Amino acid sequence: MHLQRNIAVTLLIALIFSIIVFRVVQIEQRRDAELTRFNALQELSTVRARIEGLLDANLLSMRSLQVEFSLNPEVNTQRFNALTSQLLSGELHTRHVAIAPNLVISNVFPQEGNVGALGLDYRTIPEQYASVQAAMRARDIVINGPITLVQGGEALIARVPVYHHETDEFWGIISQVIEHESLLEDAGLHQSERFDIAIRGVNGTGEQGAHISGAEAIWQQSPVVSHVALPSGVWTLGAFPKSGSWQAPISTYTLHWLSGGLITILFSLLVFFLLNSFCRLQSAFETISHQARYDSLTSLPNRHYFMQVLNDTIREKARTKSALAVLFIDLDHFKEINDSLGHEAGDELLVKVSERLKTSLRGSDLVARFGGDEFVVMLKDLEDPLDAELLANKILKVLSPVIEVASHDVIIQGSIGIAIFPNDGDSASDLIKHADLAMYAAKSSGRGTSYFFNDSLRSQAESHLQLHREILKGLQENQFRVFYQPIIEYSDHAPNGQVVKVEALIRWHHPEYGIVSPAHFIPIAEKTGTIRELGEFVLKQVCEDYHKLSNQGMCLPVSINRSSREFNDPQAAKNWLETIDAMQVPRHDITFEITESILMPDKERQHQMLEELAQSGVTLSIDDFGTGYSSVTYLRNFPVKQLKIDRAFLIGVPESPQQVALVEAIMKMAKALELEVVAEGIEQQNQADRLKLMGCHFMQGFLYARPVALEDLVSMYHPETGFAAERVGVGQ
Ligand code: C2E
Ligand code: MG
Ligand code: MG
C-alpha cells in the first residue's frame, strides 16, 4: 500500500519535472528564434547599407552631369564623353549614360552597342515618357525597373531632369542604366550563409512591389524586412533562415533534454528513497507507540495507557459533574488452568476472554489487560451507578459459556469489583485500588459475582439481585396477576359515560410481602432485564382475558404498558405482533402505552419498531404525558394516536388557574395534532367536570374505578347498559 502510494507520488513528481524541462526547452527555443531574427535583421541592414552606398556611388555621375548641364547647357559630344568617361571610371555598375536635351537622345556613353538609341525621342515611347515625366515632376532622380532592355537583359534606369541654372528652363533628361544584378551581388544579397535574402519593390514600390532578386520563396514565409531608401520610393529587403524555420528543432536541445532528464531521474529517485525511508520510520514509530500502549498478547490497551485515558476521562467527568465506573475483573481459577494445561493454553484462554470482553462493551467503554488474568473496564457514560452492575452481570454472562483451549473444554468464571467516580475516589489510582479491593471481596463471597466498593450501592445491588431472582421465581409460581382499570368516554350517545377501554396493570402477590406495587418493581425489572419476561406475561394474559370477556359478550379494547427498555430487543415488535396474532386478538383492540423517552432522537431502531406496530394496526398512546420530553415536533413525527395526561397535571385542577391553563394548553396542542386525550388519575368530580369543559372526553381514575381483577370487571357489566359509568363507579 505504502509502496504503491510512494511510486505514484514519485511518478507525479517525475511528470511535473518533465513538464518543467519541456517548458524550459520551449523558452530556450523561443529565445533562440528571437536571436536568429535579430541576426537576420543585422545582416539585412548591412546589405541595405551596401545597396544604398552602391546606388549612391552610381548615381553620383548623374548628379554631376545634372550640375554640369544646368550650369552650361551646351551640348558637345566631346565634352559629354570627357565628363562621362571621367565620372564612370572605377568599379561602378552603370552600363551607359545618355543625355536627351529636349527629350531627344543626343549622346550616349559609351557609344559602343548603344548607337541605336541616338535620336530617340522619349515622347514617342509612352512607358519611357511616363518615367521621364515622373522625374520631371519630382525634379529629382527617379529609378525605374528593373525593366527588360532593348539591348537585352534587365537593368534599372535612373532619370533626372536638368533645368537651366539661371532661367530654370527645362533643358533635358539624363538617363543612366544600372545593372542591378551585379550591384546586388556586390552588396552581398546572395552571400549570407544562414539566411535566404530577397529584394522586392520594382519601381520603388517597396513591400507591395514585385520581386526583384534573391530567393523569391521567402515572401511566402514570415521574413524579417528592412527598407532600402531610393531617391524616390523604397525597395524592401527580406530574410528568412535557410533551415526553413526561425525556431531550431526541439531535438537540437539535446543537452537541455539530457540534463533535464538526469535531474528528473535523480530527484525522483531521491523523493522515492525519502518517502520509503519516511514510511519505514513512521511504521516503526507506530509499532513502538502501539507496543507502548497495547498488550502484545491480547492487543488490548495496557495498564499504562488505560491509566492515561482514565485520568483524562476523570478530568472531563469532574468538569461535567458526571459519573464513571471502573470494573476490576479477575478470572477465577486461571492459575490452575495455566499450571495444568501449560502457558500456551493460558495465553490462548486470555486471548479468547479478551475477545469476549470486547463484545460485551459499548464503543465508549474501554477494556485493558493489567497483566496476568486481570482486566479492567472503564464505563464512561454512566447514567445510574447501578448500570455498572448490569454491565458486570453481562460480562459474567458472556464469560460463562465453555471455552475450548488446547482441545480442552474450559469453564471460566470471573469476579468483578466496581468503583464509581466520584464517590469511590477522584483519581485513577484510587478508583483502581478500590475496584481491586471490591474484586477481592467478590471473590471471597463466592466466585462468579460482582461487588460494589461502596456499601450502600452494594446493598442496593444485592437487593436488586434478590428482587430479580424473586420476579423470575414469582413468574414461575404464578404470583403475578393482571388488573384492569376502566377508561370512560363521554360522548353524545353516552352523555353519562361509558367504559370504552381498560388499561392492563400488573399486580404482584408476593407470598411474603403481600401486594408489591409495580412502581416499586417495574423500574428494577427494567434495569435487570426481567421486564421482558414480565411484558410477555402481561401480553399473553391480556390476550387470554380478552377472549374471556368477549366470550361473555364484552368486547373491550385493552391498553398495555410497554417500557422503553422492552424496545431494546430488536425482535420485540415482531414477537408481540406474533403473540397477538397467534392468540387471535384483533390488532386494533390493542393499544401500547409508551413513554415520551422513546421518542427522543438517536433511537432509530426503536422508532422503526413504533412504525411497524402502528402500521400493523396497533394503537400507540403516550403515557404520563407532560412528565418527560414533551416535544411537539417529535409527537408530530410519530404515528401516535393518543395522549394520557399524567395525574400530576390534574392535581390543582380546577382550583389553580395556572394548572388549568397548563392542561388547556395540552388540550389545544393535542387538538392541533388530532390526538385523542385521556385524563389519568381523576379522583374528584370537579376535576372530571372541568376536563369535560375543556373538551377532554376520556377519563381514567379512582373516581370511576380502581384497577380491578378480571372477575370484578365482569361484574361491572350489564347486558343491557353495558359498561355504564354509573355501574363502574361514580358516574356523570
Ligand atoms: P401508568 O401506566 O401511568 O398507570 C397508571 C397508574 O396510576 C396505575 O398505578 C394506577 O393504579 C394509578 N391510578 C389510576 N387512577 C388513579 C387515581 O385516580 N389516583 C391515583 N393516585 N392513582 C391512580 P400502578 O398500577 O401502581 O402502576 C404504576 C405504573 O407501573 C404504571 O403507570 C406503569 O407505568 C407501570 N406498570 C404497571 N403495569 C405495567 C406493565 O404491565 N408493564 C409495564 N411496563 N409497566 C407497568
Ligand atoms: Mg399506563
Ligand atoms: Mg400513566
Shape: elongated
Distance between the termini: 81 Å
Return Rg in Å: 59 Å
Count of alpha/pi helices: 21
Largest sheet: 8 strands, mixed, barrel
Structural class: alpha/beta
**The first-level CATH class name of the domain at 481-507 and 526-728:** Alpha Beta
Strand content: 15-25%
Number of strands: 25
How are the strands of the biggest sheet laid out side by side?
17-18-20-21-22-23-24-25
How would you portray this structure in words?
It contains 21 helices and 25 strands. 46% of the residues lie in helices and 21% in strands. It has 732 residues and is an alpha/beta fold. Helix 10 (428-444) links the parallel strand 15 and strand 16. Among the domains are: 294-453, Alpha-Beta Plaits; 481-507 and 526-728, TIM Barrel, CATH 3.20.20. Ligand C2E binds next to strand 18, helix 12, helix 13 and strand 22. One magnesium ion binds next to loops.
Could you list some keywords that capture this structure?
Alpha-Beta Plaits; 5-stranded antiparallel β-sheet; binds magnesium ion; TIM Barrel
SSE layout:
Blueprint (H helix, E strand, L loop, with lengths): L1 H70 L5 H11 L6 E8 L5 E3 L16 H13 L3 E7 L5 E10 L6 E9 L1 H7 L8 E6 L10 E4 L9 E6 L4 E8 L12 H40 L9 H18 L2 E10 L1 H8 L1 H17 L6 E6 L2 E9 L3 H14 L3 E3 L2 E3 L2 E9 L6 H17 L5 E3 L2 H22 L3 E10 L8 E13 L3 E3 L1 H11 L2 H21 L6 E4 L10 H11 L7 E6 L8 H13 L2 E7 L6 H6 L4 E4 L1 H4 L6 H16 L3 E4 L5 H9 L4 E2 L10 H6 L9 H4 L4
Parallel strand pairs: 15-16, 18-20, 20-21, 21-22, 22-23, 23-24, 24-25
Antiparallel strand pairs: 1-2, 1-5, 3-4, 4-5, 6-7, 6-9, 8-9, 10-12, 10-15, 11-12, 13-14, 17-18, 17-25, 18-19
The structure holds ligand C2E and magnesium ion (2 copies).
